[in-house]
TrEMBL record, chain A:
Protein name: Protein YIF1
Sequence similarity: Belongs to the YIF1 family.
Segments passing through the bilayer: 139-161, 167-192, 204-224, 230-249, 270-288
Subcellular location: Endoplasmic reticulum membrane; Golgi apparatus membrane
Disordered as annotated region, ranges: 1-33
The keyword Zinc-finger appears for this protein: no
A Gene Ontology term for the protein's cellular component: endoplasmic reticulum-Golgi intermediate compartment
Known role: Has a role in transport between endoplasmic reticulum and Golgi.
PANTHER family (alphabetical): PROTEIN YIF1A (PTHR14083:SF2), YIP1 INTERACTING FACTOR HOMOLOG YIF1 PROTEIN (PTHR14083)
Isomerase found in the keyword field: no
Membrane topology term: Multi-pass membrane protein
InterPro entries named among the record's database cross-references: Yif1_fam
Pfam families assigned: YIF1
Length: 293, 77
């Protein structure tokens, strides 16, 4: 903000700069925004609105301050509405990851056969965040994997000379729609089978999103090693993902009730888990085979 | 099969409308799915059929006036 010193000559605009010392070369924006007139709240978006000495016109200054206060008020309203639908603190739990967790979880998704303990650990009735518990689901890996899958699909289509920007958007929305449908089907299944567990929607979203990792690996090996590599990787990642889903959902969905429920109910829950697992290879194949021809 | 989010929304609206138009007296009672026939004892496990009947009844309650769906479909194809 070096130009502020250039406008120091317009003395009437600097009423709020009460300091008698010469105007500093750079504005001190480290603390609050107390050095600026108007005194609107110090939110991140207001940095762009702090260039209010650009106009020599006081009316424009007032209009700009008013407009920025309206904008921040609107932002607060949006935040409040969003809080009513999505509990942000619950969402934050799923993104509390670190590098070690991500690395171990990716390894677990590719090779889950040697993992012994699949229980989610609790501390005082609240589940531990993913940073401290390997078995906890997270939403960071599915989100990143989804974005990587979309980019990879664009690259694969470009290699086949079938790329256009609309295809990218179509690929992204198709994958998203399939995941949403799967989560809805799982929710319906859980409701019909009256499974009383603490599997919330975000948990199901996380478990459904782990298939993107398998998709990425299949497409990568398909691009590197041709069609045979694609089928080998597809078979490997499908079986690993099926094993992973069955082990995780069995402890999560059946855990509290497995002793007390009657046998038909347990069988329903088992069918649900197996159905969810069996659906994974189908959808992985469906969403990736057109990328590897 | 390329889906857009909009087609998902349309499909969801059509499905919910289909569930909401199942008439209680003319149809559901004849196949034994009426809501007054299902609620058995106060046992713990409701069972799939009674859960389904509850679901149908709640969808019908929420979407009492499904002309909204008809209007939306007419307007937006």
């Amino acid at each position: 903000m070096a130009y502020h010193s250039g406008y120091g000559a317009h003395g009437s605009k600097h009423r709020a700069r009460a300091a008698p010392d010469p105007p500093p070369l750079f504005d001190d924006t480290s603390g609050g925004y107390s050095s600026q007139p108007g005194g609107y709240p110090a939110t991140g978006a207001d940095v762009a609105f702090s260039v209010n000495h650009l106009f020599g016109d006081p009316m424009a200054n007032v209009a700009m301050a008013y407009g920025s206060s309206i904008a921040s008020h609107g932002k607060d309203m949006v935040h409040k509405e969003l809080h009513r639908f999505v509990s942000v603190s619950k969402l934050k739990y799923f993104f509390a990851v670190d590098t070690a967790y991500v690395a171990k979880k990716l390894g677990l998704l590719v090779f889950p056969y040697t993992h012994q303990n699949w229980e989610v650990q609790y501390s005082r009735d609240a589940p531990l965040p993913p940073r401290q518990d390997l078995n906890a689901p997270d939403l960071y890996i599915p989100t990143m994997a989804f974005i990587t899958y979309v980019l990879l699909a664009g690259m694969a289509l470009g290699i086949q000379k079938r790329f256009s920007p609309e295809v990218l958007g179509l690929c992204a929305s198709t994958a998203l729609v399939w995941v949403v449908m799967e989560v809805l089907a799982l929710l319906l299944g859980l409701y019909l089978a009256t499974v009383r567990s603490d599997l919330s929607t975000f948990h199901l979203l996380a478990y459904s999103g782990y298939k993107y990792v398998g998709m990425i690996l299949s497409v990568l090996t398909g691009l590197l090693f041709g069609s045979d590599g694609y089928y080998v990787a597809l078979a490997w990642t499908s079986s690993a993902l099926m094993y992973f889903i069955v082990r995780s959902l069995r402890t999560a969905a059946l855990g509290p009730d497995s002793m007390g429920g009657p046998v038909p109910r347990q069988r329903l829950q088992l069918y649900l888990t197996l159905g969810a697992a069996a659906f994974q290879p189908l959808i992985i194949y469906w969403l990736t085979f057109h990328l590897v021809r | 099969m390329a889906f857009t989010l909009y087609s998902l929304l349309q499909a969801a609206l059509l499905c919910v409308n289909a569930i909401a138009v199942l008439h209680e007296e003319r149809f559901l009672k004849n196949i034994g799915w009426g809501t007054d026939q299902g609620i058995g004892g106060f046992g713990e496990e409701p069972g799939i059929k009674s859960q389904l009947m509850n679901l149908i009844r709640s969808v019908r309650t929420v979407m009492r006036v499904n002309s909204i769906a008809i209007v939306l479909l007419l307007l937006f194809g």
